[in-house]
Design brief:
about 80 residues, alpha+beta, 3 strands, about 35% helix
Length: about 80
């Protein structure tokens, strides 16, 4: 599975708002408690992977398996 890339984040304003972008486009906005948890997690681990998880934009590894399932073959 390839590593996620192209994510950036920006901390805005005194209200502790965090905007996560992917390839220059805003993906999600986190505020207050969620923003604080995100900032703690991003400082402790791989930034790209953490941002991919928080936006829901990451592969789970089962896409090829699901495509080959009998109920999905006609699609």
């Amino acid at each position: 599975m390839p590593q996620p890339h192209g994510f950036t984040y920006e901390q805005r304003g005194p209200a502790r708002t965090v905007v996560i972008s992917h390839r220059g486009r805003p993906v999600t906005t986190l505020r207050d408690g969620r923003a604080q948890r995100f900032l703690q997690e991003v400082s402790a681990g791989d930034e790209q992977l953490v941002m991919a998880r928080w936006t829901g934009d990451y592969k789970r590894g089962n896409e090829r398996t699901a495509r080959a399932h009998p109920r999905n073959r006609g699609r």
